[in-house]
Amino acid sequence: SISASMITMHPYAYAMASGVGSASMNAAALAPLMHMFPSMATQLEAFAGCSNLLSFCFGIYMCIFVSLPLAERMYTALAPHIGRDHEISLDDDYDIEEVIHDQYATTEDMTVGKLERWATFLILFSITVAVGNFIGYHTSVTDALIGMLMISLITIVGMSLERIIPWNIPGIIYISLIGIFVAIPGVPTADLLVRFVSQIDLTTICTAFLAYVGIAIGNDWDEFQKIGWKGIIITLIVISGTYLCSAGIAHLTLVSTGMI
After folding, report:
1. Structural domain boundaries, residue 34
2. Does residue 50 lie within any of the structural domains?
3. Which string of DSSP letters, residue by residue, matches the chain?
4. Those residues with Cβ within 8 angstroms of residue 148's Cβ, 6 or more apart along the chain or in another chain
5. Domain count, the chain
6. How far apart (Å, rounded) are the C-alpha atoms in residues 208 and 7?
7. Does some domain include residue 100?
8. How far is CA 50 from the centre of its chain?
9. Do residues 192 and 224 both lie within one domain?
10. What predicted TM-score, i.e. pTM, was given to this entire model?
11. Considering only CA atoms, which of 24, 59, 58, 26 is closest in space to residue 45?
12. Each residue of 74-108: pLDDT tens digit?
């Protein structure tokens, strides 16, 4: 919101920049934009969602085939000159055996246990969003809950396909394709899906999701403290720089293509 107020760029550019990052960063950056430009809320959601999907999918392959090989070569070349004199090892407090014996963390196969965990979490999340939607926007709890359960069902199907189909395709692609297909006008499920999902405000989902992220950070607070204040400053600089540069590129692209 500070950037959008002080730096003159089109809201669409800021929305696209919001998608360059994790889902939590996307939600945190998009919510204030929607409040600042309520008349553009639908378009901002579309730009941010598309940007986040493309960034996630493209980023995976960029990381595997470009970033990691480049980082490994640079580390090999520079470590003898500017690296530490001692070997870096795993943290003594890190219990690798616990991860090895975690059946959910070590297997990529589809299991009943995974389905139960996914379903339990998504049902609780859906209830939280439905109640929050009622408090914030005075919509029907029942309609919002049905809409969230529909979204949750699509999510479970997409995540299951990721593990069943041996093509190494990220689950978010399956989830997005299923969601797009069942909402296409003319498809039998479209009217019912749009009727209930339209009752849910995106900012309510963002609030519940970011609250969960905060709880997760709290559980790892000891590890978080090891980063120190320098790490926090560097993180803020990197995130802010990435966001503003992405917004600048998006704005120039929108201007050059005549979209704004």
Report:
1. 1-85+220-260
2. yes
3. -HHHHHS---HHHHHHHHTSS-HHHHHHHHHHHHHH-GGGHHHHHHHHHHHHHHHHHHHHHHIIIIIHHHHHHHHHHHHHHHS-SS-----TT--HHHHHT-HHHH--S--HHHHHHHHHHHHHHHHHHHHHHHHHH---HHHHHHHHHHHHHHHHHHHHHHHHSTT---HHHHHHHHHHHHTSTTSTTHHHHHHHHTTS-HHHHHHHHHHHHHHHHHHTHHHHHHHHHHHHHHHHHHHHHHHHHHHHHHHHHHHHTT--
4. 125, 126, 127, 129, 130, 200
5. 2
6. 29
7. no
8. 12
9. no
10. 0.69
11. 26
12. 888 887 777 555 555 545 554 555 544 455 544 56
Q: Tokens 């139960």: give the residue.
A: 116
Q: Which of 198, 150, 211 is nearest to 41 (CA)?
A: 198
| Residue written as token pair 């960034």 | 55
Q: What is the pLDDT of residues 106-147, one digit of tens each?
A: 456 677 888 889 999 999 999 999 999 999 889 999 999 999
Q: How far is CA 74 from CA 60, 80, 234, in A?
A: 20, 11, 20
